[in-house]
């Protein structure tokens, strides 16, 4: 199954994509992860992308499209995949149409105020773990003891800029895919397990066809 997860930043796309990948053995393709890897390694792409991400803006379409096209050619994508963070614009969606036939688009809908709380409260660790301040864990990682940090793109002013970008550039994707009868809405404001149950039902129903 070739699946796209849509939703504003902080809607829980990454968390749900990981669960879907584990349950259904589908590769989780996150453009955010790919870009962050390049930023960490200081590649030319990483330096270029960081300037946009830190400002709460989208990385240019042509850069992201090339990354995704290369990834979809790999053997593990032959039986399907989950796209998380791509497409983000109608132009990207049109480019994707040329190389893939998407089976469903799951839109994780969450109230904007809840999203701001989720993102600004997020804390990261160099070991790869992530937490939320509501967990009451302090400023060190329970797993490795390292100091936790807040990503630049998780700060409140950047989050608001990201939400604005989403509203103007990414939200139209819902209309784009609705016209193709591919969009299925799930309530992303519910607990994680309930959101995953909604998504699992969509995939199970598809697999029964």
Overview of this protein structure:
The structure is a single chain. With 209 residues, the chain is an alpha/beta fold. Helix content is 48%, strand content 14%. The strands form two sheets. A five-stranded parallel beta sheet has the order 2-3-1-4-7, with helices on both faces. A two-stranded antiparallel ribbon has the order 5-6. The longest helix has 16 residues, at 192-207. The N and C termini lie close together (12 Å).
Provide keyphrases for this structure:
five-stranded parallel beta sheet; two-stranded antiparallel ribbon; alpha/beta; 209 residues
Task: Itemize the secondary structure elements and their pairings.
Elements: E1 2-6, H1 13-24, E2 28-30, H2 31-41, H3 44-54, H4 61-72, E3 81-84, H5 90-97, E4 104-109, H6 112-120, E5 122-124, E6 130-132, H7 156-170, H8 172-178, E7 183-187, H9 192-207
Parallel strand pairs: 1-3, 1-4, 2-3, 4-7
Antiparallel strand pairs: 5-6
Helix pairs in contact: 1-9, 2-3, 4-5, 6-7
Structural class given helices, strands, pairing? alpha/beta
Could you spell the SSE succession in H and E letters?
Answer: EHEHHHEHEHEEHHEH
**Distance from first to last alpha carbon:** 12 Å
> Which word captures the global form?
globular
Indicate the proportion of strand residues: 5-15%
What are the low-pLDDT stretches, counting only 5+ consecutive residues below 50? none
Largest sheet: 5 strands, parallel
Q: What does the radius of gyration come to?
A: 17 Å
Strand order of the largest sheet: 2-3-1-4-7
Helix content: 40-55%
How many strands appear in the DSSP assignment? 7
Secondary structure tally, helices: 9
- The residue-averaged pLDDT reads 90
């Amino acid at each position: 199954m070739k699946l796209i997860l849509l939703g504003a930043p902080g809607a829980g796309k990454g968390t749900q994509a990981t669960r879907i990948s584990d349950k259904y053995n589908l590769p989780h393709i996150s453009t955010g992860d790919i870009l962050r890897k390049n930023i960490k390694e200081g590649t030319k792409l990483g330096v270029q992308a960081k300037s946009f991400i830190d400002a709460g803006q989208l990385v240019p379409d042509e850069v992201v499209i090339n990354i995704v096209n290369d990834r979809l050619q790999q053997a593990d994508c032959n039986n399907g995949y989950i796209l998380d963070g791509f497409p983000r614009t109608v132009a990207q969606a049109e480019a994707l149409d040329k190389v893939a036939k998407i089976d469903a688009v799951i839109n994780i809908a969450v109230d904007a105020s809840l999203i701001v709380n989720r993102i600004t409260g997020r804390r990261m660790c160099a070991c790869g773990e992530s937490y939320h301040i509501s967990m009451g864990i302090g400023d060190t990682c329970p797993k490795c003891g390292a100091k936790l940090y807040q990503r630049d793109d998780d700060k409140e002013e950047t989050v608001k800029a990201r939400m604005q970008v989403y509203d103007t550039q990414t939200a139209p994707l819902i209309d784009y895919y609705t016209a193709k009868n591919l969009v299925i809405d799930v309530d992303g404001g519910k607990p994680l397990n309930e959101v995953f149950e909604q998504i699992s039902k969509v995939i199970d129903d598809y697999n029964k066809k």
